[in-house]
Amino acid sequence: MILNKAQIDAHNEKRLAQHKRAFDFVSGELPDAEAIIRKLVDFQVAIPSWALGSGGTRFGRFSGGGEPSTLEEKIEDIGLLHQLNRSSGAVSLHIPWDIPKDAQAIKNLATDFDLKFDAMNSNTFQDQKDQKLSYKFGSMQHVDKAVRQQAIDHNIEVIKYGEELGSNSLTVWLSDGSCFPGQLNFRNAFNNTLESLQAVYAALPEDWKVFVEYKAFEPNFYSTTVGDWGQSLLYASKLGDKAYTLVDLGHHLPNANIEQIVALLLNEKKLGGFHFNDSKYGDDDLTVGSIKPYQLFLIFKELVEGMDARGMNHATDLGWMIDASHNVKDPLEDLLQSVEAIMLAYAQALLVDSKVLSDAQLNNDVAGAQEILQSAYRTDLRSLVAEARLRSGAALQPLQLFREEKIRQQLIGKRGTNSIATGL
Ligand code: LRH
Ligand code: MN
Ligand code: MN
């Protein structure tokens, strides 16, 4: 392991007095800081295996060096993140980018780092080297039944890998759609996709869930066959109780009210999982909270309220995953920032007094309702999130420790400057 407990302790020791001052100041003003901290300690966000290398754009890719080139190295990187913040205790794998050659060995390695396997992701949006039929014109929607069957078989294979690793959910994102009017019969595309998903659903183990991820556009630019939450909800409803919608924050048309979508999906018992990221224009996959942190808070406010209304466990009843990666930052620093942004938004949402807000709503007190939300959002809860980390044995300032210990330089020393992570 690159990092040991003594290094974390030494880092925390140096910052303890300053942290205590900030923490005492904030927590003294809160009605129940301890309840928030307990929830923060439990909350874990899965790290996607495909975010550990520099994500390229279609114009270029600039590796920072020391990228993990095997599944083992990816798990080591996620283990490192989890040591630093104790909030990244799960991995989300993408097949075939991360085929486990020896599933038991991979499982053991993950257990050594205290990591679980969250949703497995299938991939029918690229053609692989030895693949028989092409997905150029779609996979589950395809006019040729043989292509649809190939996509079904692939998803069933992904479930098998997931079972070996101890995962219990499958995320299906399809790039299926069309680029030009007339290219596709929408109804046939929908019905073919539904039939294919039904075949995958039939192969789902008893205790598994399937998440149907939607996306408005890209790579298809005229229509997408699972293009929005309405379409995803249709598929999920027709499939059955084990099928849910997955919300990826970057997959909406501009200005979509994602918090309202989340509230309604929860209300319908059909919200299954999340892909966190941020964006300014499209599916930019930028660091969570880097562009629209208030939106992130509003989404968490709906999540907390909706889950509480249904007596759900925040930490375990939805699949929480990051889906972000790009060109210019160190991927591990980027992921530390994303997790921090998620924890902060969650903490702020926990601070909202739902009873007081509900009273304001019942009285049509619009200004009052806004005050309640914004005063939670503007409370600086960074020291609470840090306190949760401290109590779980993580670093008070994970990113600083990553830099102090020159972890990227160590990874480059071990893996070289040209190692390339599989993924986007
Ligand atoms: C599609 C997507 C989907 C994929 C991932 C690599 O844009 O969000 O979740 O699996 O990116
Ligand atoms: Mn996604
Ligand atoms: Mn995406």
UniProtKB/TrEMBL annotation:
Transmembrane segments: none annotated. The keyword Phosphoprotein does not apply. It holds the Pfam family AP_endonuc_2. Keywords: Isomerase, Manganese, Metal-binding. Residues 100-285 form the Xylose isomerase-like TIM barrel domain. PANTHER family: L-RHAMNOSE ISOMERASE. This is TIM barrel protein. It comes from Niabella ginsengisoli.
